[in-house]
Amino acid sequence: MKKHNLILVILFATVLIFTSFIYGYKITKNKDGKENNNALMTEEQQKDSSELEILREDERISPNTFIEKSIHYKDCNHNIIKLNDADDEIINMTESQYKKYMKENYSNIKIVDFSSERIILQEERNHMCPNHYIVSESEGKIAIYRIDENGEKYLDKVFNDYPISLLKKIDQDKLMEGIVVDSEEELSNVLENFIS
Length: 196
Hints:
It contains five helices and eight strands, in the order ααββαβββββαβα. The protein is of the alpha+beta class. The N and C termini lie far apart (113 Å).
C-alpha cells in the first residue's frame, strides 16, 4: 500500500509541475512571443497601468543634449565629426518636431539617431573639407589658400618676395593649377620646393 501511495504522490506531483509549467508559459507569452504582463494583473492594476502609459511623455531635446554631426566631404573623401550643444531654438522639441524642423531648414542632413542625451546627424558635401591648403599664386606671387565651410577658396597668405616668374615653366603651371595638400607638414614640404 505504501508503494502504491508513493507512486500516486509522484504521479500527482509530476502532473502538477507539468500543468503549472504549461499554464505559466501560456499566460506570460502573447502571440508575438513577448511577455504579457496584463494577464497576471488585476482589472484595477490594468487600469492604473494604462493611465501611466498615457502620462508617459516623448523624449525631448534638453540643454544637455549633445548633437554629433558627421560630415562627409566627397571631393577629398574625408569625414569630420563636430560636437555641439543644442541651440535654444530646438530645446524641448520631440523627435517628430525635430524631424520636421530639420526637413524644413536642413533637408540635406539626415537624422541617424535621436535621444534626449544625444542626436546623431549625417551630411554629405560636394567639396573639399576645411583641413586642406592650396599652394597657388596671387597676383604673380606664391600664395596659400584655404577652404571655408562652404567649399569656397579664400586667400590665407601671400609671399610677396617670391614671384612665380622666377620659377621653371613646369612649376609655374603647377602653381597656376593649384597644389592641394592635407597638412601643415605637407604644406611646409611643398613651399620648401618653391621658396628655398
